[in-house]
Amino acid sequence: MELLIKVDLARIRRNVAAVRAATGGRVLLMVKADAYGHGMKRVARALESDADMLGVAVLEEGRALRESGVTAPVLVAAADASEYAEAADLGLTVAVCDESGLDALAAMRRPPAFHLKFDTGMHRLGFPAEDAAKVCARAARLGLAPEGCYSHFGAPSKSQLARFGRVAAASRRTFPRALLHIASSGTLDFPGALYDMVRVGHAAYAGAMRVESRVIASRRAKAGDTVGYGLMPLARDTCIAVVLGGYADGVRRARTAAVIGGVRYPSLGSVCMDMFAVDTGDRCVRPGETAVLLGEELTARELADMQGTVDYDILTGFGGRAKRIYTDDQR
């Protein structure tokens, strides 16, 4: 017995096509963090002809894509200057975020393709947005031409968008062919945010993952009986179902739930390393019944709300001993 993570590649493909149709521009599909828990290599191989570019966080992810046979353009968001030579060898595109990165590129005989990253308000990575004209001019003097210029929204923000507008103007004056991009899944409909390309995670993976397990035990318990570590006492007589899968598999230790026979049941006590209990009330379910831990019946957003986190935290968490199964009804 094991947890099953079911990934619908065709659903991701349809989502990407919908984004392209809605925005009318290029689409960069983020596949970092193991494609947000969906499996980076499989997703990238299946979708590389449907997206214009793929996005990863670190060079190791880009290298893994190339080793798995992916040939599509790949943007590496946090590549160190010491990794530029390998990026060039692998045909990866790097994000350049500071002056030292420009200097490193200028010193190379064969630099990698690159995008200039500008900070418009998140204060993570990027050149200050107000320095865009100077940065573009310096890159040109060094004989460097970026393939793109971009920034990242912290939230839908008119002030961030205005700053990027000035970045875009500076880029277009100096590098008219560079791709401009700032919009991501949460800002696809934000007025004025669409430039030449959009980067998508949420919008691409919506509804594409399902996690199923099994009931491995079922029993009746009385008020006052205790459940799990910490010996939580029951307030009433009830039935308890024990579901395979614990925090070693990505089931968060905080409050969770499972859907069994179409009914959602709340967890009882803390989630254990390998299993957790749910309160099934008057119904004692049968061992062997399917327990849905994530799906249309119990979404990542709903689980995140239960646990005081975000849905990306939920999606990227499932793994451990779980087995991924892929379906693709279009190919």
UniProtKB/TrEMBL annotation:
SMART domains: Ala_racemase_C. One of its GO terms (cellular component) is cytosol. Substrate binds at R124, M273. It is an enzyme of class 5 (isomerase). Pfam families: Ala_racemase_C, Ala_racemase_N. Residues 208-327 form the Alanine racemase C-terminal domain. Keywords: Isomerase, Pyridoxal phosphate. GO terms for molecular function: alanine racemase activity; pyridoxal phosphate binding. The modification N6-(pyridoxal phosphate)lysine is found at K32. This is Alanine racemase. It comes from Candidatus Limadaptatus stercoripullorum.
